[in-house]
């Protein structure tokens, strides 16, 4: 299949069908989106608890890779068991697929996903210089958190959830204190992007970076990610459940782990929350 997918399973909660969100927008002032990835399905839900939960429910009947976009998400999940607040107009989608990579390499999809989202936002007219990526996969706009990405494994499948503050930043009262401050695309840039338009750019971008990983390994992705990294060479803090380190963000290693030069020596940190 090339170009547009077959009519995806668009659901409005009442069994009605709507126009495909998987096709590029028509009449857009921007260059057209790249073709929708071959053999990849797409479902748009009017509302859902969490697109991650929905991906898990659909696993037994999945015919191939699938994108699930929700126009309203009422119980969004964030990293480390946190919730994810999702005001109307924001982007909430999960891509579920069966990676060729084994379990240890699946964390590399964090970087694939962040690069794809960065590309998709740039395609939609967000200036590259205002975007950056906070290790491992938060997409920042002017240094504020624009988007979060969540990876969950289920058997031989991987679900990657993307939450993007397209229209609104969440109410600070809904956030865990001390987290990176959120920002909304519309307020910060005046760029208004319907969730369906972001999906039309994100899905092909993800497919391109995924093919890079499959064909060439992590090397090119690591290089591209480092070119977009926030605070590379600067001081950051990395916090796990038990420890916090402060040091210079030197690089990421061949497994994607954060390499931090601290006063006590170089630390290689596979998973943590990063603060500036
Ligand atoms: O904590 C983070 O930074 C990750 C947030 C991921 C949120 C997205 S929204 C779409 C998908 N569905 C969920 O329930 N969570 C992810």
Automatic annotation (TrEMBL):
EC nos: 6.3.4.15
Chain residue ranges for the region called Disordered: 1-34
Keywords: Biotin, Ligase
BPL/LPL catalytic domain segment(s): 35-214
Keyword Ligase included in the entry's annotation: yes
Catalytic activity: biotin + L-lysyl-[protein] + ATP = N(6)-biotinyl-L-lysyl-[protein] + AMP + diphosphate + H(+)
Pfam families registered for this protein in UniProt: BPL_C, BPL_LplA_LipB
Keyword Ligase: yes
Protein name as annotated: biotin--[biotin carboxyl-carrier protein] ligase
Cellular component, GO annotation: cytoplasm
MF-aspect GO terms: biotin--[biotin carboxyl-carrier protein] ligase activity
């Amino acid at each position: 299949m090339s170009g547009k997918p077959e009519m995806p399973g668009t659901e409005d909660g009442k069994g009605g069908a709507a126009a495909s969100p998987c096709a590029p927008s028509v009449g857009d002032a921007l260059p057209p989106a790249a073709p929708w990835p071959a053999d990849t399905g797409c479902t748009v839900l009017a509302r859902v608890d969490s697109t991650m939960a929905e991906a898990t429910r659909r696993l037994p009947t999945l015919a191939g890779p699938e994108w699930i976009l929700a126009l309203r998400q009422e119980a969004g999940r964030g990293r480390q068991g946190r919730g994810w607040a999702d005001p109307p107009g924001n982007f909430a989608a999960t891509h579920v697929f069966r990676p060729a990579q084994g379990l240890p390499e699946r964390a590399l999809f964090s970087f694939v996903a962040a690069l794809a989202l960065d590309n998709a936002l740039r395609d939609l007219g967000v200036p590259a210089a205002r975007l950056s990526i906070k290790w491992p996969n938060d997409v920042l706009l002017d240094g504020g958190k624009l988007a979060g990405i969540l990876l969950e494994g289920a058997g031989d499948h991987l679900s990657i959830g993307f939450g993007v503050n397209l229209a609104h930043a969440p109410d600070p009262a809904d956030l865990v204190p001390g987290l990176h401050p959120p920002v909304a695309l519309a307020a910060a840039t005046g760029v208004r992007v319907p969730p369906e338009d972001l999906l039309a750019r994100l899905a092909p971008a993800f497919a391109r970076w995924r093919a890079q990983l499959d064909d060439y390994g992590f090397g090119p992705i690591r290089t591209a990610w480092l070119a977009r990294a926030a605070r590379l060479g600067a001081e950051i803090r990395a916090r796990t459940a038990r420890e916090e380190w402060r040091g210079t963000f030197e690089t990421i290693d061949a497994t994607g782990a954060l390499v931090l030069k601290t006063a006590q020596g170089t630390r290689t940190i596979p998973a943590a929350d990063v603060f500036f």
